[in-house]
Amino acid sequence: MRLLSLLGLGLLFAASLVDATEQQPEVDTFVIVHGATGGGWDWRVVSEHLIEAGHRAYRPTLTGLGERFHLAGPEVNLDTHIQDIVSMIEFEGLDDVVLVGHSYGGMVITGVMNRIPERIKHATYLDALLPDHGMTAEQTTKLPIHTWPVEAGVVKFPWVDESKPFPRDVVHPVNTLTQPVEFDNPLAHIIAATFVAFIPNGQTLQQWQAERSGWSRAKKRGWTMRIFDGDHVVYRAKPAAMANLLIATVSDRNSSAHGRTNNPVDISE
């Protein structure tokens, strides 16, 4: 009788362990790539919210930007920035990465997906440039980059105010904007991906689309389409909501590129 009781307790204990394991939330690894003129500093608060939610978050700064602005020059190109992220992922030993790119960061994560698709679990493009194979950032955006002042291999974007204290936006290595990206690896094309448009108050999705080309490319690829209320840097005003958005996108799955395309999901906060 005592033996049966012990066996029963053992089975209950084993069942409780299985149940506890099943209830544990999945821990995801986010690598956030900032936009032009920015730096990892710009995503600190969003990363903190991701970590508080039980995930891992990395926010590397690209060469020549942020705290690495002193490395800017004509020798820095798109390949440099792609290698920045590839090296970080490989040296940190990361797998099943949720790769996030904001704005110009979309160019970078496109190249990273092409280089190491086996390490990427999901890609999320936040109001980002989305190129086809062989396109440059300058070709992907409708901003008049060619009209902005260039000196010593860097271009000064209109919003860069060098009189402000750090941390702040800085001048950007110009050759990162003129080098074509590679996106011809078949394995990169099957990575689950999400495209998020930041729609400012008073603007419609149609108006947003008229100013940008990424939406149509993402839709043709069968990616999940989402919209989020706010301007291009809304993550600064809504870091918690942005973290929740990133967590939500992990479960997004691609539809057939030759079948239906996903309708946009409004996750406005």
UniProtKB/TrEMBL annotation:
<dbReference type="GO" id="GO:0080032">
    <property type="term" value="F:methyl jasmonate esterase activity"/>
</dbReference>
<protein>
    <recommendedName>
        <fullName>AB hydrolase-1 domain-containing protein</fullName>
    </recommendedName>
</protein>
<keyword id="KW-0732">Signal</keyword>
<feature type="signal peptide">
    <location>
        <begin position="1"/>
        <end position="20"/>
    </location>
</feature>
<dbReference type="Pfam" id="PF12697">
    <property type="entry name" value="Abhydrolase_6"/>
</dbReference>
<dbReference type="InterPro" id="IPR029058">
    <property type="entry name" value="AB_hydrolase_fold"/>
</dbReference>
<dbReference type="InterPro" id="IPR045889">
    <property type="entry name" value="MES/HNL"/>
</dbReference>
<feature type="domain" description="AB hydrolase-1">
    <location>
        <begin position="30"/>
        <end position="244"/>
    </location>
</feature>
<dbReference type="GO" id="GO:0080030">
    <property type="term" value="F:methyl indole-3-acetate esterase activity"/>
</dbReference>
<dbReference type="InterPro" id="IPR000073">
    <property type="entry name" value="AB_hydrolase_1"/>
</dbReference>
